[in-house]
Design brief:
Helix content is about 40%, strand content about 20%. It has helices spanning about 15-25, 35-45, 65-70, 90-95, 110-125, 155-170, 175-180, 190-200, and strands at about 5-10, 30-35, 50-55, 80-85, 100-105, 130-135, 135-140, 145-150, 150, 175, 210-215, 220.
């Protein structure tokens, strides 16, 4: 089994550091925490991390200085900066120095999770699953085919794009905005219509969907058997 992504959390605030570690561990990530830049440096020389979550405002060496130092030494692993809300200057400076994204405090844990997943997707391109099974149906994302036994289930181009986008990230929430951007001519509103139509072809009971689930305030998630 493939190991879960390893995340380094660097924040001098004990409460935030503990909360981040608990939450991300609950999201099935491996998490190591550091209270300051010096500790983070030691960890980064001995361990490989898939992502570093780095607070900008820390005593001693700031998050921005640590980020710049890492990039100057050729460390390419992605960095998500935590910034003070409204501090536009730090955000811009962070991106200039090589940050991959930023998140303003205070933030919702779910938004953090989505940003982490998005960064990891961009930096760790994976092949889509060969087949996804859903209540007797089998979908092959590579071939763009949905079968019920030996019978092929017809999908419109919009439905195929939608199902493929969800299948590539099976088990993860995908925003309406992203789903619309992956399907030419679609809007966030039309995605809802397409989901309704797709559920009629996939769900045992379209009124109580178990495979194409609504994620309130975000979009949808595909849950295979």
């Amino acid at each position: 089994m493939k190991e879960a992504p390893h995340i380094l959390v660097v924040d001098d605030d004990d409460r935030i550091r503990t909360l981040l570690k608990q939450y991300l561990t609950g999201q099935d990530y491996r998490v190591t925490a550091a209270a300051h830049a010096a500790s983070a440096r030691k960890l980064l020389t001995t361990l490989d991390f898939d992502l570093t979550i780095l607070d900008i405002m820390m005593p001693g060496e700031s998050g921005l200085d640590l980020l710049e130092s890492l990039r100057s030494k050729g460390v390419k692993s992605p960095v998500l900066l935590l910034t003070a809300r409204g501090d536009t200057t730090d955000r811009i400076e962070g991106l200039k120095r090589g940050a991959d994204d930023y998140l303003a405090k205070p933030f919702e844990p779910e938004e953090l999770s989505l940003r982490v997943a998005a960064i990891l997707r961009r930096t760790h391109v994976e092949e889509p699953p060969e087949e996804i099974e859903m209540s007797g149906l089998v979908f092959n994302p590579k071939r763009g085919e949905l079968f019920e036994g030996d019978k092929r289930v017809r999908l419109t181009e919009a439905e195929l794009q939608l199902l493929s986008s969800l299948a590539f990230r099976a088990g993860e929430p995908v925003s309406r905005e992203e789903l619309a951007s992956n399907s030419p001519g679609s809007t966030e509103r039309s995605i809802d219509v397409q989901v309704t139509r797709l559920r009629r072809k996939i769900e045992p009971d379209p009124k109580q969907p178990i495979h194409i689930q609504t994620v309130r305030g975000i979009g949808y998630r595909l849950m295979p058997d």
